[in-house]
UniProtKB/TrEMBL annotation:
It holds the Pfam family PALP. GO terms for molecular function: cysteine synthase activity. This is Cysteine synthase. It comes from the Bacteria. Residues 11-283 form the Tryptophan synthase beta chain-like PALP domain. SUPFAM superfamilies: Tryptophan synthase beta subunit-like PLP-dependent enzymes. It catalyses: O-acetyl-L-serine + hydrogen sulfide = L-cysteine + acetate. Pyridoxal 5'-phosphate binds at N76, G176, T177, T178, G179, T180, S257. Its cofactor is pyridoxal 5'-phosphate. The keyword Magnesium does not apply. It is an enzyme of class 2 (transferase). Its EC number is 2.5.1.47. The modification N6-(pyridoxal phosphate)lysine is found at K46.
């Protein structure tokens, strides 16, 4: 085996594999590719944004010695920030809704992060803002930070264009902070304005971790509606069933938001005469084993 002695952990962020679904698609004239972001070193697509945001804050002089990072997160961003903070030697407090799975809390704590739980995601955002107001804290604010979507403009988008050899016709992504869909949309539309960008939101009454239908007051500031050609709603049941199918039929072990995105991609494929759809598999399924997702 050849060992690259110059390879660092940060070099492993991005360039994730993309695989064609073999059994789930129903339209033989449409190929659905799944981009496996769980292959990032921290296990999710959020490694890209976390690295970009922390490095950006350091490069701009915003993150000084003695300052603690604080961030509201639904889970994956928190794990990624905890990992990156340990690499950069920066203390961090992460604030999450109390319904977050135990695996996520333990993962953050394993990297040395302090974890605070609040009743809701909106409450987590309010708590983080209050910490910043006290002084001594810096919030990277993934919901308003251009470094979030720029990580996908520089990385995820170009990788998709390269790996499909420019043949992509539709990009499908869950929408949480909206960083992934904003950055990928920017890049793909520059290459071909005809590529359709499709975002996924939960249907009314559905709870899908990682996908949000934001109240207007909490809508991410980085979100620009005109960059999304279509928004498809996905029910909680659809997301759960597709997540289970991905594991059992495609051997793709992922979380519920990824199941939601693939569910939308399959419905979209049924409408097309031909096409190449790429959807994001946000993370790995082992973060949900304490929930009833695979029960």
């Amino acid at each position: 085996m050849i060992v690259n002695k110059n390879l660092k952990l940060l070099d492993l962020v991005g360039n994730t594999p993309m695989v064609a679904l073999q059994r789930i698609p129903t339209n033989p004239n449409v190929t659905i590719y799944a981009k496996l972001e769980g292959n990032n070193p921290g296990g999710s697509v959020k490694d890209r944004a976390a690295y970009s945001m922390i490095k950006g804050a350091i490069d701009r002089g915003e993150l000084q010695p003695g300052v603690t990072l604080v961030e509201a997160t639904s889970g994956n961003t928190g794990i990624a920030l905890a990992m990156m903070s340990s690499l950069f030697g920066v203390p961090i407090e992460l604030v999450m809704p109390e319904d977050a799975t135990r695996e996520r809390v333990l993962s953050m704590e394993a990297f040395g992060a302090k974890v605070t739980l609040t009743p809701t995601m909106e409450g987590a955002i309010d708590y983080a803002n209050a910490q910043v107001a006290k002084g001594g804290y810096l919030m990277l604010n993934q919901f308003a930070n251009p470094d979030n979507y720029n990580s996908h403009y520089r990385g995820t988008g170009p990788e998709i264009w390269r790996d499909t050899e420019g043949s992509i016709t539709h990009f499908v992504s869950a929408m949480g902070t909206t960083g992934t869909i904003m950055g990928v949309s920017r890049y793909l539309k520059e290459q071909n304005a005809g590529v359709q960008i499709v975002g996924c939101q939960p249907s009314d009454g559905s709870r899908i971790p990682g996908i949000r239908k934001w109240p207007e007051a909490y809508l991410p500031k980085i979100f620009e509606r005109q960059r999304v050609d279509r928004i498809m709603e996905v029910s909680e049941e659809e997301a759960v069933q597709m997540t289970r199918r991905l594991a059992r039929e495609e051997a793709i072990f992922c979380g519920m938001s990824s199941g939601g995105a693939v569910s939308a991609a399959v419905k979209l494929a049924a409408e097309l005469s031909a096409g190449v759809i790429v959807c994001i598999i946000c993370d790995r399924g082992d973060r949900y084993l304490s929930s009833d997702l695979f029960g």
